[in-house]
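Researcher: Let's walk through a ligand-bound prediction step by step. First, I give you the protein sequence. Second, the SMILES string for flavin-adenine dinucleotide. Third, you return the three-dimensional complex as structure tokens. Ready?
Model: Ready.
Researcher: Here are steps one and two:
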Amino acid sequence: MQFSQEDLAFQREVRAFIQASLPDDVRKKVVHGNEVTKDDYTHWHKILYRKGWIAPNWPADQGGSGWSAIQRYIFDEECGLAGAPRLSPFGLGMVGPVIMHFGSAAQKARYLPNILSGEETWCQGYSEPGSGSDLASLQTRAERKGDHYLINGSKLWTSLAHHADLIFCLVRTSIEKKKQDGISFLVFGIKDQPGIDIRPLITLNGLRHVNQVFFTDVKVPLDSLIGEEGKGWTIAKYLLEHERVSGGGVGALKTALQRVKEIASSEMSDGQPLIEDTDFRRRVAQAEIELMSVEQTMLRALALFSADRQIGAVSSLIKIRRSEVEQTISELAVMAAHYYAMPYNVASLRDGWNEEPIGPEDANALTPTYMFLRAASIYSGSNEIQRNIIAKADLRLS
Ligand SMILES: Cc1cc2nc3c(=O)[nH]c(=O)nc-3n(C[C@H](O)[C@H](O)[C@H](O)COP(=O)(O)OP(=O)(O)OC[C@H]3O[C@@H](n4cnc5c(N)ncnc54)[C@H](O)[C@@H]3O)c2cc1C
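Model: Step three, the predicted complex:
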């Protein structure tokens, strides 16, 4: 669980590169919880792409960095500590590995280069109204009609669909006895396509992150199918594993906790800085201990993984504890800024807002961030479902 000399040298190299390359305005937006635009994400994506660091989890012969698990962890942590934006996982972290594993040579050539370069962006069409935790109950139909599939149905909570060029979608191509059978994995264009209607859902922070996507007689070519027809559940499970394992982000939480300490050091309570208040200090210390435990669990999992040992349901454990500590930190930030965190002005989170903040610089973003993060225990598979996974896989309870 200790970094080697090579790992430490790698850490210094990553830190220096990010320091020199991450645009300061983007870093500020991330650290202050302001809206990061699609252009900001694309800009950072291209910087990492040019450096050859855009795909830490891809093999080197496919354009990835070819890093070890430890190096990937270090990179993720350094990005978080520096306030780099977390790039969308849908292309690089999810559909990319799926296409590499299950796609044809033509599909690999068509999609992978643009995922790497950032030319095309993706969204994930899994959940539906009535099918979230029980994903296999999904109802969106794709009927084979000659040279194409005809898609009808709807996907819900589709993050960033309004920015995406393409969608990867679980659809029902046949009705079978077992609901996991008859599901297929399709990839197709979503932007300005006839029959596709992307409607915004505004989350509690007042911003557009998720959507509902409606499909009405949408025609997609047969070569949109990845893998075998009716065997999409196997692909879905493969992808969900990637989704859960990729959700590290400990560095970003350290930065957020550091920000809480800074705010609490400048805000006064009963004539002294809030950080001196015994109860508040105890809460901050508790959050820090929990964050350290997430970090140590990740490192322990990495050590096992690097030694080709089974890690069990540890990704579920990390998902639960990480989302809980993230929520706690956002709550502490609101407490630290107290009444300065009360304004709920979404416009102030966007580019172009030039009014001087009252109180801490990032006060306006604290409550919206707190609100949005209530969803952290729901997305990527709810925490209750993760507990079920642990119960079955590690505790052998059924
Ligand atoms: C901000 C956000 C972004 C999202 N982005 C995407 C996206 O890009 N693409 C996508 O496909 N999906 C996305 N989702 C959907 C997400 O994956 C689902 O919300 C999640 O899987 C839960 O499904 P559900 O909302 O239908 O809730 P339900 O499955 O209806 O669950 C409701 C409640 O019941 C609990 N529950 C359900 N079943 C069980 C059980 N067996 N045991 C114990 N408790 C149970 C759940 O934990 C939850 O508390 C996103 C969600 C959010 C909030």
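Researcher: And what stands out?
Model: The CA atoms of residues 126 and 227 lie 17 Å apart. The beta strands are 122-125, 141-145, 148-156, 166-172, 183-189, 196-202, 208-221, 225-226, 268-269, 272-273.
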